[in-house]
Design brief:
globular, 193 residues, mainly beta, lipopolysaccharide transport protein A fold, 13 strands
């Protein structure tokens, strides 16, 4: 059985790290130079399991590259030899943040489980999920983001006491007033010809 365990704070194999980069900074959702920055992974332990095709970082895991930051108790990369299927970060909660464009605030996501399915290009925030961007926040038991289609779905869950935990969205006044100003401007414009 091929099984190696490493205990220190270092990046392990190059291919799993590249997979993590795809998870974090693909599709223009990051500052342009984030991909050009060094990737730093720190953890209490790291384990590469060739037989099962997993690379696991455990114990106060911190992943940083440019503006992107992940904090979790455990990060697992699934797959081998340039054929990776998913990346999972687990914590209470696991936390991710990244600045999408120059001049914008960081986008933050947190849940007890963050899962990115590479082939589907879908990010799942599972169990106590929360997402925040430019002052707008979305929370629920589960949030799903289809990167290709730019579609977000959120859902609640019944609690043990029989009460529903509903999806909650908070939109700041400045976001609402911006839409009203644009609508008012469009309504005032009339064709001269």
């Amino acid at each position: 059985m091929k099984f190696r365990t490493y205990t220190s704070s270092f990046a392990m194999a190059k291919a799993p790290v590249l997979t993590l980069l795809l998870f974090l900074s693909s599709h223009g959702q990051a500052l342009p130079d984030d991909r050009l920055q060094n990737l730093l992974i720190q953890a209490d332990s790291a384990e590469l399991d060739d037989l099962n095709g997993t690379t696991t970082y455990a114990g106060a895991v911190i992943v940083e590259q440019g503006s992107m930051k992940i904090r979790a108790e455990k990060v697992v990369i699934y797959g081998r030899n340039d054929s990776y299927s998913k990346v999972v970060a687990v914590g209470k909660p696991a936390y991710m943040s990244q600045i999408p464009k120059v001049g914008q605030q960081a986008v933050t996501a947190q849940a007890n489980r963050l899962e990115y399915r590479i082939t589907d290009e879908t990010l799942f925030l599972i169990d106590n999920a929360a997402f925040k961007q430019e002052g707008t926040s979305l929370s629920g038991n589960r949030i799903e983001y289809d990167v290709r289609k730019a579609v977000v779905k959120a859902g609640g869950k019944s609690s043990a006491q029989g009460r529903d935990k509903r999806v909650k969205m908070v939109i700041p006044p400045k976001a609402l007033s911006g839409n009203e100003d644009n609508q008012a401007t469009q309504n005032k414009q009339t064709p001269d010809e």
